[in-house]
Automatic annotation (TrEMBL):
It comes from the Eukaryota. One of its GO terms (cellular component) is mitochondrial membrane. Residues 1-94 form the HIG1 domain. PANTHER family: HIG1 DOMAIN FAMILY MEMBER 1B, HYPOXIA-INDUCBILE GENE 1 HIG1 -RELATED. The chain crosses the membrane at residues 30-47, 67-85. It comes from Pongo abelii. This is HIG1 hypoxia inducible domain family member 1B. GO terms for biological process: mitochondrial respirasome assembly. Keywords: Membrane, Transmembrane, Transmembrane helix. Its main location: mitochondrion. InterPro entries: Hypoxia_induced_domain, RCF1. It is found in: Mitochondrion membrane.
Length: 99
């Protein structure tokens, strides 16, 4: 093994993780919102774990997973609706400009 134990560095022609995240955020801004929603819901449900009462742990975890997935799916749906709306508005504007 090599004695040199530096961090792995991507090749020059490859983007770093932060550059990829920023590029993806610019391409589809609702992805980080969905990810943030998942993290917030999961953190809140973990915080509320102590006060779950007589609810079984498995049920609590299932509810946490469903709530986090609902945030992600909601962000995906908002993105799809926004894309369809913007495509429709652009097409209508182009059709109106041609007439």
């Amino acid at each position: 093994m090599s004695a040199n134990r530096r961090w792995w560095v991507p090749p020059d022609d490859e983007d770093s993780v932060s550059e990829k995240l920023l590029r993806k955020t610019r391409e589809s801004p609702l992805v980080p919102i969905g990810l943030g929603g998942c993290l917030v819901v999961a953190a809140y449900r973990i915080y509320r774990l102590r006060s779950r009462g007589s609810t079984k742990m498995s049920i609590h975890l299932i509810h946490t997973r469903v709530a986090a997935q609902a945030c992600a799916v909601g962000a995906i749906m908002l993105g799809a609706v926004y894309t369809m709306y913007s495509d429709y508005v652009k097409r209508m504007a182009q059709d109106a400009g041609e007439k």
